[in-house]
Amino acid sequence: MIRDSESFNILLDTVARLVREKLIPRETEVTDTDEIPDDLLTAMRDMGLFGLTIPETYGGLGLTSEEEVLTSMALCYASPVFRSRIGTNTGIGAQGIVIDGTDAQKKKYLPRLASGEITGSFALTEPESGSDAGSLKTSARRDDEHYVLNGSKRYITNAPEAAVFTVMARTDLQSRDARGVSAFIVDRDTPGLTVGPYDKKMGQRGSHTADVIFDSVRVPAANIIGGQEGQGFKTAMKVLDKARLNIAAVCVGAAERLLDEALNYAKERQQFGKPISEFQLIQAMLADSKAEIYAARSMVLEAARKKDGGDNITLEASCAKLFAAEMVGRVADRAVQIHGGAGYMQESAVERLYRDVRLFRLFEGTSQIQQLVIAKHILR
Q: Which residues are catalytic?
């Protein structure tokens, strides 16, 4: 659902120019320093990228799902770490409030998230609870007009930068499933909340994750999302439907970059007196990559349009995330293969992207979890 094609095309052109002129030239610097420079963060804030999906009422751009995925594809032609930095504000770190928050919660937090003044983060995964979100152990005990949170979260994206967390915690301490889980908005400066050091990851340097520990953290009862206990898991699943579709779009953008890197190299690299692009086995890898990218892009756009039409897209989001995440891994592998030894060197963009995109088969639900979600739906 493109509401205003002319204005949206201006946005896409602006994002493409940012990618080409500012982000891609700084990718190596970001990898070497494990930090996104402040001037690039300012540029992204000034463009409104931190508020892409936050409603216009609260200072965001209020993009539709179709507009969002197309923007993600354009932005993720550069290293996916740049999108990751804004992604919790446009996605999981804010969408719980957007979807299920009270009016007071929206007014308090969404304008600052939309402007990029603050960063949001989504704290669901725990040391012993990942895909099995219903088994989480972080507790929230009611104490008059507060809840007291105890527990720890793991691999939390943008936790080192976050000023506010959406935290899933168990309010029904006797329950053993998702029905006892509630969602809380927790400010970083709340006493008892600590964030651990950066995780040392395989790839995605410049995008930070860390543990978040809650030691008798007192959270006002007014900060339970939606004002009601026991709705946290439902909120999380709504957020993850949207997130999975967007990650599929991210995979498409990264795959398009990988294909272009492979194609350009194949045209320039000479062997046996001619460019390797003239060899049919190289052409086969390029063709397979193009076909799979086209398929993933089509899946993402169809699912986004269905969501804009008001349909439940849990099945479609899982299908798109599963296919696109696996697809970009195959495209990355072919890109390295086409580069040969040069693709194994760290100064190569495809070497870095090969490591970066491996994450997409793991987070927001592993490929195997997507398979289970899909099977559950088709077996009904």
A: 364
